[in-house]
Write a structure and sequence with these properties.
The protein has 1 helix and 14 strands, in the order αββββββββββββββ. It has 251 residues and is of the alpha+beta class. A 5-stranded mixed beta sheet has the order 9-5-6-11-12, covered by helices on one side. It has a 4-stranded antiparallel beta sheet with strand order 1-2-3-4, with no helix packed on it. Strands 10-14-13 form a 3-stranded antiparallel beta sheet, with no helix packed on it. β11 and β12 form a beta hairpin. The longest helix has 51 residues.
Length: 251
């Protein structure tokens, strides 16, 4: 009976790879990985954008429930309490040094209508990065409220807006801060911001250079820079711009 041929370096015909075969295999795996990683990253980004849109829908429903309880009027973006605190739409907050201010999500105007404070936190906001500055004790909100719906402490009735499908209610928001410690002109930092308005570059294009928003009629969308005034502020790859007035000012 003929004996099986032996492979070089493997006595007795034990199976195995030569050095050249191993190098070729490693090279093929590296090529496949380089092709798959961008697709995997894209799926991950799309999943976070979908999660963000779902949270905005829940905030839109919460806003509608609030209006049903308050004569079809929008909630103010903040009110002073007379006790050294302000009641914002997203929570109760106090004064003090940046990043150390008292914050209680249960004190927000929308809190009774939301499923929890985590809904206010966009999964794509870069919390924990060295270029991010918190305003309160921990993360508080990742979205901005259209200030033109409730300037200062007054609010307007929803029925007075003729084209709710074209007016923003909430959207991805942030602010480039270069004027409050530890931020400076030579060390600008990104921070959460609670409103979106005319003349303010606070719409945050954080989802692969798009911003997730919800309109007054309840539909969500992804806006690109065509929906904003140029130029945009840029910080560590994050873009901030002012939305077109037609998206903010009620008709």
């Amino acid at each position: 009976m003929d004996r099986p041929l032996s492979r070089p370096g493997f006595p007795g015909g034990s199976p195995g790879f030569t050095l050249m075969e191993l190098l070729v295999s490693i090279a093929l795996i590296a090529v496949l990985a380089s092709l798959l990683l961008p697709a995997i990253r894209r799926v991950h980004l799309d999943a976070r954008r979908a999660n963000c849109s779902n949270q905005l829908r829940q905030m839109g429903i919460a806003s509608q429930l609030y209006r049903e309880d308050f004569g079809d009027r929008f909630f103010p973006y903040y009110q002073t309490t007379g006790q050294g605190t302000r009641r914002y739409w997203f929570g109760l907050a106090g004064d003090g040094p940046e990043g150390q201010r008292f914050y209680d999500a249960s004190g927000g105007f929308l809190h009774p209508y939301l499923g929890g404070p985590r809904i206010q936190l966009c999964p794509s906001f870069p919390y924990g990065r060295p270029f991010v500055k918190l305003k309160f004790e921990g993360a508080s909100h990742g979205y901005g409220y259209n200030i033109h719906l409730a300037p200062r402490q007054e609010s307007r009735p929803a029925w007075s807006i003729r084209k709710p499908s074209s007016i923003l209610l909430f959207g991805d928001a942030a602010q480039l801060n270069d004027f409050q410690f530890p931020a400076s002109r030579t060390n600008p930092l990104l921070e959460e911001f609670y409103l979106i308005g005319s003349g303010q570059r606070t719409l945050h294009f954080r989802h692969h250079h798009t911003a997730s928003v919800i309109f007054l009629d309840g539909h969500t969308a992804s806006l690109d820079l065509k929906s904003a005034f140029a130029p945009a502020d840029r910080i560590h790859g994050h873009l901030l711009a002012e939305p077109l007035p037609s998206l903010l000012l009620p008709h």
